Fold this protein.
Amino acid sequence: MASARRLAANLFSGVFTNVTRIAIQAVLLPLMANLLGPSELGLYALALPIISFVMLLSDAGLGDSLAKEKGDGTLVWSSAFWGLLATGIILMACLWGVSFLVASVANQPRLPDIMLPLSLTLLMVVMTVIPNAMLLRQGNLVPTALADLFGNIIGAATGITLALYGFGVWSMVALYVVTYATRAIVLNVASPFRPRLEFDISSLFGHTGMGSQILATRLMDLLTRMFENAQVSRRLGAASLGGYSYANQIGFFAANAVGNPLWANLYYVAINRGPAEVSEHYIRAHRIFSLLVFPASAVLALAMPSIVPLLFGEAWINAIPSIMVMVLATPFGNLAVFQTAILFARDRGRLVVGGLALVMLFRVAVVVVAWPFGLIGMSLGLAAANILYFVATLIFINPMIGVRRRDIIRMIAAPIAASTACGAVFWFLVGEHATLVHLVVCGLAALPVYCAALLVLDYRQSRLDLAAVTDLVVQRKPPQPATTH
């Protein structure tokens, strides 16, 4: 029960934080664009990709690997801290130096001025690696979610306040720095760590392998997306690039909000529990994800023809089919990633890197081949990549980690079918040119159809799901032994 309650707390806090962050961004982007103007915002946009890329390198992929550290000795933790701190300082200096070159090429002499405080966030990220790893080892993800939540709220409030007082691009710099500073403070308060003055690089050798594998997956994903964006822009133009970018972002929204906390919880179980319990949690993660994400994705995708003109304007209408496709297909990519938590925990990261490399090559091939068919052709190809990735993990990886394929199929089949029925009812009720209020009402009206379809299609498992939720909400007392007088 304690494990189930912890999973529920981790999941709720992660989903709530992600939804709040998206809501903040939805308000923040147009507001700051109006307050700052294109010149100031353009300067910040020039700096952000550079700092984001270097930030990928700052923890060297050690965070998740350190969570596997079983010993109570401080040597490995202290060595990791000092090593990461030195790496952060070096990257910070390199980043500031590179900014002078970029400023000269882009004719933006103010870039080094804002890059120096922005580069400080690298040190703030380093300061969170050890607390994050310790919390992940404990399976307690709530402080991490709270740190992200408070960071985004306080950072946004700081940035908007400074923008209103006319600080220009410095308001965005302050927003970025305050966000990461708040996150670092909250995490270090929640999981304090005092490094000792000791360092032994050999103590980290057991973590560098997994760290490099994690780093490799991040870089592959980043480089592939950069290539995709460049090809879409070059072949189809800036307008299509905007549509493609939004299709990906909206597609990842619902899936990541639920998938990320589930992945982290599964990784915690995989590094602390036996194979039988890991397999049970792996199957349960698929069920929870499917129950929550597939109906949300179906309704969200079918709402796009009404949402896009209302929120983004008529100029984005051509992107609607692509956004719908990506919203429906992205969840399969998230399901496929669950197996990486177990493979990393069992030191089989090479399988993860190899599998992801094949997926990325397929994505590159799609962009190269499908561009004559326009944005929808590329979206369909990338949707196929997500689905094929899931099918491949189902066929090849699941038996390796001790999970029967039919168990996974049984867990996700009914939610997918019930989501289809829910989507059909929602589509029928919505009609054309619906308002946001009407969309919400129709979504709520379609929800009972989803629940009823689940009961019809998978009555036994649905009853088990309901009982599990009831046990979480109502803490049942164990039966008391009879007493004699």
User: Anything to note?
Assistant: The longest helix spans residues 2-58. Residues 476-485 have pLDDT under 50 and may be disordered. Residues 206-474 form one domain.
